[in-house]
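[Q] Does anyone have a clean C-alpha cell version of this?
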Amino acid sequence: MDRAGIGRVCLALPATTLAHSFGEDHDVYKVGGKMFAIVGGEGALSFKVSDIAYEVLTEAGYAAPAPYMARAKWVQVADPASWDEGELADHLKTAHALIAAKLTKKARAELGLG
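[A] Here you go.
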C-alpha cells in the first residue's frame, strides 16, 4: 500500500484527522488528538499494535520496533507496499481502535465513537 492508500484507509476511520506534526513530509493520523499511525518522509509506516501483535510482528521480522515509540508497542514497516493491503488495513483499523479506547468516555462520546 502506498502513502495515498494509507491515507485513504486512515481517513475513512471515524473521527480521524491528518496532521503534519513532524514536518510536511510526515503524515500523522490521529483520533481524539492522539496518534495511531505515521507515514515518514522516506515512506516507512509506523503504527500502534497490541502487545501480542508487537511480539509476533517483530519476532517474525514483518516489522521492526518503531523508533522512539517501541516502548508504547508501536511497530515500523519500512516498505508498506510489500504488505498485503487487506492485512495492513486491518492493522491500521486496530491501531485506531486501540488509541480510541484509551480516550476518556466523554471524548469518545464527543467524537461519536460510543
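[Q] Thanks! Anything notable?
[A] The longest strand covers residues 34-39.
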